[in-house]
């Protein structure tokens, strides 16, 4: 579910939705989501002063609060 949410948000923000990739790494207490986008779209996903990235992380935390696991979003370039 988390993967689909991040993928949907990222594809809505970027110019090249086909380049969006989300990799899930499951741990015992946390889940890491690695987000990759086209190099020219990285700024659109991060936003000015990281505001968009922070907003995506906030939405992700709200969506996963019932699971009890910590979810981390990493934006890779």
Automatic annotation (TrEMBL):
Q: What are the record keywords, sorted?
A: Cell shape, Cell wall biogenesis/degradation, Chaperone, Cytoplasm, RNA-binding
Please list the GO biological process terms of this entry: cell wall organization; peptidoglycan biosynthetic process; regulation of cell shape
The lineage's top-level taxon is Bacteria
A cellular component annotation (GO) from this entry:
cytoplasm
The reply to whether Cytoplasm figures as a keyword in the UniProt entry is yes
Instruction: Give the InterPro entries listed for this entry.
Output: KH_dom-like_a/b (IPR015946), KH_sf_prok-type (IPR009019), KhpA (IPR020627)
Q: What is its main location?
A: cytoplasm
Q: Which GO terms describe its molecular function?
A: RNA binding
Its annotated compartments are: Cytoplasm
Function field: A probable RNA chaperone. Forms a complex with KhpB which binds to cellular RNA and controls its expression. Plays a role in peptidoglycan (PG) homeostasis and cell length regulation.
List the PANTHER family hit by this protein, alphabetically: RNA-BINDING PROTEIN KHPA, UPF0109 PROTEIN SCO5592
The record's similarity note reads: Belongs to the KhpA RNA-binding protein family.
Assembly notes: Forms a complex with KhpB.
| Protein name, UniProt field | RNA-binding protein KhpA
Gene (UniProt) = khpA
């Amino acid at each position: 579910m988390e993967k689909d949410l991040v993928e949907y948000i990222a594809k809505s923000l970027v110019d090249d939705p086909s380049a969006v990739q989300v990799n899930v790494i499951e741990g015992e207490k946390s889940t890491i989501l690695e987000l990759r986008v086209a190099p020219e779209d990285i700024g659109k996903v991060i936003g000015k002063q990281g505001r968009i990235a922070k907003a995506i992380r906030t939405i992700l935390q709200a969506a996963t609060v019932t699971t009890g696991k910590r979810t981390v979003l990493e934006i890779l370039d």
